[in-house]
Design brief:
Number of strands of chain A: 0
Shape of chain A: flat
Strand order of the largest sheet of chain B: 2-1-3-16-6
Helix content of chain B: 40-55%
Low-confidence stretches of chain B: 24-32
Number of strands of chain B: 20
Order of helices and strands of chain A: HHHHHHHHHHHHHHH
Oligomer: heterodimer
Low-confidence stretches of chain A: none
Distance between the termini of chain A: 29 Å
Largest interface: A-B, 44 and 49 residues
Number of helices of chain B: 21
Helix content of chain A: 55-70%
Strand content of chain B: 15-25%
Chain lengths: ~300, ~500
């Protein structure tokens, strides 16, 4: 009883804050939680006349096409492989850049660099695909018609040679996203207690030592948190990066086909809602289990660092 | 007290925004009492400036007749496919919707998006049976009519189209060329004298050589065609297709195509390149007046060689452009009557197609129905092929004044395709079709354009098709087709 009264008192005391929270909660409830019921579409054969609720169940039939392809291995390898590389190198590069930016004495220039680094994040992948095309177009691209002739090299059919694309995609992905991570880590670093650095300086620590002993350990919690969160999208991929940027050219499929592009290509003609939902459901389910497992692992190692 | 103000302000602003959006949607849905306003959705060049004027004029004319006006919505091509899919999937209320075999018609019927119209036509618009006639065979599935087709050219096939400038320069006997071998001889000659232009305008979507050789073969589903021996085959299982691919590669190496073909494929700007006019040969559909239409859209004279085989009435032609009545329509009786007007009333048909006389067009020859459209007039949807019964259309001054007579003759000269009325049920082979679709994506574009050497990829491609289940699909389609044929006899 006393606890309830205590709760009510707290609720009233913070009522303005709860009110501020209300729109966000309603938004999440309506747009993130309520639609979860739609997951049943993955297990049904949708008939528009019957609607979602009364359409017939078909069990796991909609999932078959995901595993039927002889390309299934390539798809999994590409999706997981690229994600593994991105998830591991992302924080490494972003943290390094954040630390470097933090060390700059000219704060105005630091702000300028920071803005420039994060700008690509806001450019649509479709626009990026045309920027890339401007460089790599076979006849009209800058590389083939400008750079290579100047160097005396023959033109290369970039869009028909799969071997270069893992590097291209890695670089383009990084160019677009490293800035975002950098800004997050910079913001985190701004909240660090400066007294720690002063104490270290008094004890005779060099700047480099301070970075390794203070900055990086303090960044570890947020790096882990972002790392575990990104594991939740382990089976997803940036459609713009893997479909638009390679201009959907066939010869590049072995290195650019991911689960998302495979789903899109397979279902363009059929337009089957159930199969498309099955693909998305599969991605989400695997992502969910991955996050759970990762969180359990982190909890074992260091309980306070776990996400939940 | 201080904490209240910002919290409240943010809360109220967000709620206001959300409610505003809802209220807007509700207001639109508010029903008109009497008379009824139907809603029509179709693809096109987007909303026209004078759309409301035309709708008012239409309502003035049709309300006395059927107690209904119509709100016409032209949705831009870029958004049309997704928008329609969404409207149907979400159960949005609307009356008339455009559909076609290339616009998910079969899928929509399978998912019950359109009302069966048999009773509606009999009771409210029986003239549709006479006017639309044979065309109704197309959208009839299991005896139920699911949409009304546009009466236009019935038959299909292909024809060669020529840039008149070069026809005159080289004296090409364009009415007599019938085979790709003859075309090849001319391409060699043109290459010698005009090495910088494209002898053959390669556009993998429209003028791939596979498309040319398959122009007179009926399509059963996707890339599966009815071969001359009555068997259903995947395109890549037909020898003529591989011959065409080898020819395409030969032409590519000889330089008969555009120099920047690869860039064009990647930038998807074939239509703009076509307008530049640096080409001689093209290939497209063979209905009369096609040359006139292309001349109109490209801005320089184009002539046509005409059909080089007997045109075939194909399923796709009867399904190329239709209007269905949505299952969610609250006024199906008025909707079918409006379709009746669009198919029988010359005033209504041309009002929707061209706009208001005087404001958007003027008569050049009223007797023969020839008009001249006013430039930049505010209403020029240019969708005559989609707005029902083209034989009612007025002709524009740059078109052949005998276009409709020629169309009638063209339709009559054709033979009825064997697969007309056949709608395969693809549910048993859904998975294989999805796999096949994916396997083909890798090659079809650049292979069709002649950039790849077919001999290098043939084995690989056929193996991929087999793994994806192409033989199962062929067998299933054959089984259903044979049953369909047996039923017809």
């Amino acid at each position: 009883m006393a606890r309830d009264r205590h709760r009510m008192k707290k609720l009233l005391e913070y009522r303005q804050l709860y009110l501020l929270l209300l729109p966000g909660v309603v938004y999440l409830a309506l747009l993130n939680y309520l639609p979860m019921f739609g997951a049943v579409i993955a297990f049904k054969e949708i008939d528009y006349a019957l609607g979602i609720l009364r359409s017939p169940w078909v069990g796991l039939k909609n999932f078959e096409f995901l595993f039927a392809s002889n390309d299934a291995w390539i798809i999994v390898r590409n999706t997981l492989g690229y994600n593994a590389v991105f998830i591991v190198t992302g924080p490494v590069v972003s943290v390094t850049l954040a630390i470097l930016l933090n060390e700059l004495t000219n704060r105005r220039m630091a702000k300028v660099y920071q803005t420039l680094i994060i700008m690509p994040h806001f450019i649509s992948m479709v626009v990026v695909s045309y920027l890339v095309y401007a460089f790599l177009g076979h006849q009209s691209g800058f590389v083939n018609s400008g750079i290579f002739p100047a160097l005396g090299l023959d033109a290369v059919k970039w869009y028909y040679e799969p071997k270069y694309w893992p590097f291209f995609l890695f670089f383009i992905q990084g160019w677009k996203h490293w800035g975002y991570g950098t800004v997050i880590y910079l913001a985190t670093m701004a909240g660090f207690d400066q007294e720690l650095y002063e104490a270290a300086a008094i004890d005779g620590a060099s700047r480099l030592r301070q970075i390794f002993s203070i900055t990086i350990p303090l960044l570890v919690p947020i790096v882990i948190m972002l790392f575990v969160l990104s594991l939740g999208r382990i089976f997803n991929s940036d459609f713009g990066l893997f479909f638009q940027v390679p201009r959907s050219q066939g010869p590049l499929h072995p290195v650019t086909q991911t689960l998302d592009t495979y789903t899109y290509r397979s279902l363009m003609q059929l337009g089957d809602l159930g199969m498309a939902s099955a693909a998305a459901f599969f991605q989400s389910a695997v992502g969910f289990f991955t996050i759970l497992s990762a969180n359990i692992a982190v909890k074992r190692m260091n309980p306070e660092r776990a996400l939940f | 007290m201080r904490k209240w103000i910002p919290a409240l302000v943010v809360c109220v602003l967000l709620v206001y925004g959300g409610v505003g959006a809802f209220a807007g949607a509700q207001a639109e849905g508010a029903a008109a009492s009497r008379p009824v306003t139907l809603s029509l959705y179709m693809p096109g060049p987007g909303t026209q400036d004078d759309e409301e004027q035309v709708e008012t004029a239409l309502a003035e004319y049709t309300i006395p007749k059927i107690n209904a006006g119509m709100d016409v919505n032209f949705i831009g091509w870029g958004e049309w496919f997704d928008k329609k899919r969404l409207m149907i999937a979400s159960g949005e209320e609307f009356d008339l919707g455009f559909t076609a075999v290339w616009n998910q018609f079969e899928d929509e019927v399978a998912r019950n998006a359109w009302l069966p119209l048999n009773d509606l036509i009999t009771n409210y618009a029986p003239e549709l049976y006479t006017v639309v006639g044979d065309f109704l065979k197309g959208p009839t599935i299991d005896g139920k009519i699911y949409a009304i087709s546009t009466v236009k050219e019935k038959a299909a096939g292909g024809q060669y189209l020529y840039n008149k400038k070069y026809v005159d320069k080289y004296g090409i006997p364009y009415r007599e060329i019938k085979t790709l071998d003859e075309v090849e001889r001319w391409l060699a000659k043109i290459k010698q004298d005009d090495p910088d232009i494209a002898g053959w305008f390669m556009d993998p979507g429209n003028t791939s050589l596979t498309g040319v050789v398959l122009a007179y073969y009926e399509k059963i589903y996707g890339h599966f065609r009815l071969d001359t021996d009555g068997k259903i085959r995947h395109e890549y299982h037909m020898p003529i297709v591989w011959d065409a691919l080898e020819r395409a590669h030969r032409w590519y190496k000889a330089g008969y195509f555009q120099r920047d073909l690869e860039d064009q494929i990647m930038a998807k700007n074939s239509m703009q390149k076509l307008k530049e006019g640096n080409w001689v040969f093209y290939h497209h559909v063979n209905h009369p007046g096609k040359a006139g239409e292309m001349t109109g859209s490209n801005g320089f004279p184009i002539v046509a060689g005409g059909p080089y085989k007997q045109p075939v009435i194909m399923q796709d032609m009867l399904l190329g452009s239709m209007f269905g009545i949505s299952r969610t329509s609250k006024h199906p009786e008025e909707a079918i009557q409006m379709l009746g007007l669009m198919n029988t009333d010359q005033y209504v048909n041309n009002l929707l197609n061209f706009g208001i006389e005087g404001d958007h067009w003027v008569f050049v020859d009223e007797q023969r129905g020839i008009i001249k459209t006013i430039e930049d007039s505010g209403y020029a949807p240019n969708m005559t092929w989609a707005l029902q019964n083209q034989f009612l259309n007025y002709l524009r001054d740059f078109e052949d004044p005998e276009k409709w007579e020629k169309y009638k003759a063209f339709n009559e000269s054709a033979r009825l395709g064997e697969a007309v009325g056949f709608f395969p049920d693809v549910n048993p082979i859904k998975t294989q079709i999805a796999s096949l679709q994916n396997a083909l994506e890798e090659y079809s574009g650049i292979l069709g354009a002649g950039i790849l050497d077919p001999r290098e990829v043939k084995e690989d491609l056929l193996a991929k098709l087999e793994e994806a289940g192409v033989y199962e699909v062929e067998a299933e389609l054959q089984k259903q087709f044979d049953a369909f044929k047996a039923q017809q006899e």
